[in-house]
Amino acid sequence: MKLFEYEAKTILSKNGIPVPQGGLAADSSQARQIASRLKMPVVVKAQVLVAGRGKAGGILFAESVDETVNAAEKLLQIQIKGIPVRNVWIEEKIEIKRELYFGLTTDRFRQQYVTIASASGGMEIEDVASKNPEKVLTTPIRPDFGFHPFQSREIAKRIGYSGPQISELGRILEKLYQVGMEFDTELIEMNPLVEASDGKFYAADARMIIDDNALFRHQEYKKKLLEGESELSPQELEAVKNDLAYVKLDGDIGIIGNGAGLVMATLDTIQYYGGKPANFLDVGGGAPSEKTALSLKIVLSDPKVRVLFINILGGITRCDEVAKGILEAKDKVGVTKPMVIRLMGTNEEEGKQILTDAGIDVLESMEEAAQRAVEISKKGGR
Amino acid sequence: MGIIIDKNTRAVVWGITGTQGRFHTKLMLEYGTKIVAGVTPGKAGTKIEEVEVYDSGKEVQEKNHANAAIIFVPAPFAADASLEALENGMKTIIIITEHIPIKDAITVMAYAKKVDATIIGPNTPGIITPDACKLGIMPSHIFKPGGVGMVSRSGTLTYEIAAGLTRKGLGQSTCLGLGGDPITGLNFIDALKMFETDPQTKAVVLIGEIGGNLEELAAKYIKDNRYPKPVVAFIAGRSAPPGKRMGHAGAIVMGKAGTAENKIEALRNAGVKVAEKPSDVSELLANTVKT
User: Fold this and answer.
1) Residue in A184, A264, A367 nearest the CB of B277
2) Does A114 share its domain with A144?
3) How many Cβ pairs within 8 Å bridge chains A and B?
4) Nearest to A315 among B101, B125, B212 (CB)
5) Running DSSP on this structure, what letter comes out for residue A309?
6) What is the per-residue pLDDT for B111?
7) Do A260 and B213 touch (CB under 8 A)?
8) Active-site position among B24, B65, B99, B248
9) B42 plus B76 within the same structural domain
10) DSSP tag of A333
11) Rounded to a whole number, what is the largest CA-CA distance in chain B?
12) Exposed, middle or buried, A223 (CB in 10 Å: 0-12/13-18/19+)?
């Protein structure tokens, strides 16, 4: 779950990491109120989760209260990459001496958390890493040892600091690690972490992504997610609530499958035969019939869908359960679009029988089924 | 032969009284796997499919000499179950459970390394050495013994490709799923090393997907070590848009990192044949090796 910049900054600030003075505004009167208590100039930042906010015009600067209100009004009317701006974060502009990067993420190969530090902040860290790998300092954290002040001071020194700044920067890095652990983040970063002209450090931008799998330990945020405070589409939200993985795409072939790899490969195969998938939907393992029915409902709520391709390989999922779900959904949801179904694996014969008895054809090969779905979509869903 | 498990594997099922645990215990027993005990706290003294249920791993080991565990318990408790199995001397742990928090998974992997144990998963279909042992949830009828070692990040996609191999008469030495969660025990290189020394394995099928860089690292390993056995690969997610998590927590393209194109290019550079569609894997393999 991605947190908004203002949420991340509030958390960092509560945990002793300096952030610029600021406040959140949803309308011009709030913007005026906040601006009048801040020192000018200020930065007005659209609160959206999509990447590339700056380039899309989501960050404005203001020299006075009136300018701030104008900027806020302007941002609150626009959409950034299709997402309407609901809030702006207004904060004092820091006089920047240097921009740094500091983050905490995971190294899958080493199965450890790693801190990433760089004296080249303000840019995408992946870009820095690919162009100037020597400018990125990675420190793996041994799970049985943790991350301690002496390590953070070493990092501060290696990115070019000396004197009392070492301890101050070190303290901020260590705090960031602690926040990451407390909030189960899969990524937490300050980019940039700025050194101001007075030599103090501030997190000028912050990004936090809570590990979705750990949301059960962070009910406050889970609640926010389910109440639609993030930027999920209605279909995506419905899927999240029911533990289904759904991603909306642009095409016209609705896809339902089980297992992320298989669904991805199904999408790829559709594309290979010249078709366009409308979505990714993984019903997951052991999908009971109600879940299959719900999946059909979600996929069909996209008006662009002309044909449904259901590709199920039974392992933990039983094909007979899926078959029952398809029939149930057909009645309940009123499926009128053509369906191409492919079943294989656990209780395959029972599943095929159930569908065949109901007059629905079941195909054996994924390629054959994909080609059939593409053909139907090209004929406009007939 | 095959790798990691064999006829001497004696396994304990954690979460044996749950729907999935019970269902798959039955199927594993039918396949001939030695399931010696089950664990569900509070259910000691009951039996599932003739298998004795215990309250704890410690009580299991007082009467049994289990050397493996398969975990079905829900995600919030799966790390605890895995640590319990490790603490009680089990050296191969298969974590079927999906969606285990990263922090918990890191703790489990670190402890497993310390006690020199092997973790497969989390979010894995498990491992099968056809006709010898199955610790997992895969439909067994699609696998046949033979010379192809399979290692994959996906469950059902592995079944898809394995079924294709079997239809072509290309049997398997061992098939294992690394798991779809972001932090998993074994990686591709670990599996490649094991297949390299297994005399039954004549060729390897590697099934990857978008996200992370484990496929790129595997490609580097194959190239640097002039891997002696032919490798055929399939990478899922060519059509995946960047920034979207495709089901698996680990399957996400971030910026330019983790794309299917990157992985395919790295593998091809290492001399690996990469299939365009799942069904092409068996064709490429049949042309490469007679097993």
Assistant:
1) A367
2) yes
3) 193
4) B125
5) E
6) 97
7) no
8) B248
9) yes
10) I
11) 57
12) exposed
Structurally, how many domains does chain A consist of?
Answer: 3
Average pLDDT estimate for B91-99: 95
- The reply to whether residue B100 touches residue A259, judged by beta carbons under 8 angstroms, is no
Residues B194, B272, single domain; the answer is yes
Strand order in the sheet with A22-25: A22-25, A88-92, A42-46, A59-62
Window B:208-267, CB contacts with A under 8 Å: 209-210, 212-214, 217, 234, 236-241, 243-251, 254-257
Q: Is residue B290 pLDDT above 60, yes or no?
A: no
Q: pLDDT digit string (tens) for A77-116?
A: 999 888 899 999 999 999 999 999 999 999 888 999 999 9
Cβ atoms A199, A161 nearer than 8 A: no
**Contact indicator for A240, A221 with CB cutoff of 8 Å:** no
CATH code where residue A179 lies: 3.30.470.20
Domain carrying residue A105: 96-219
Work out the average pLDDT over A47-70. Answer: 92
Q: Would you report the helix, strand and coil content of chain B in percent, each value rounded to 5? A: 35, 25, 40
Are the beta carbons of B232 and B208 closer than 8 angstroms? no
- Residue A39 DSSP one-character state: P
Q: What percent of chain B has pLDDT over 70?
A: 97
Q: Select from A127, A181, A258 the Cβ nearest to the Cβ of B156.
A: A258
B24 given a catalytic annotation: no
* Nearest by CB: B276 against A272, A315, A346: A272
> B241 contacts in A (CB within 8 Å)?
247, 249
Enumerate residues 3 to 22 of chain B having a beta carbon within 8 A of any beta carbon in chain A. 19-20
Does residue B90 fall inside a structural domain? yes
Please tell me which residue of chain B has the smallest CA distance to A145. B110
Tell me if A111 and B110 make a contact (CB, 8 A cut-off).
Answer: yes
- Chain A nearest-CA distance from B112, in A, is 11
Give the 3-state secondary structure of residue B141: helix
Which residues on adjacent β-strands are paired with residue A115?
A: A104, A139
Using an 8 Å Cβ cutoff, are B219 and B269 in contact? yes
Q: Is the peptide bond before B122 cis (omega within 30 degrees of 0)?
A: yes
Q: What is the pLDDT of residues B35-90, one digit of tens each?
A: 999 999 999 999 999 999 999 999 999 999 999 999 999 999 999 999 999 999 99
Residue ending a domain, among B90, B120, B150, is B120
Indicate whether B230 and B147 sit together in one domain: yes
Residue partners of A66: CB distance under 8 A and separation at least 6? none
> Residue B229, Cβ neighbours under 10 Å: how many?
18
Tell me if A64 is assigned to some domain. Answer: yes
User: What's the whole-model pTM score?
Assistant: 0.90
Residue B291's pLDDT band (boundaries 50, 70, 90)?
A: very low
B210 to A264: CB separation less than 8 angstroms, yes or no: yes
pLDDT of residue A133: 80
- For residue A378, what are the contacts with CB-CB under 8 A and spacing of at least 6? A274, A275
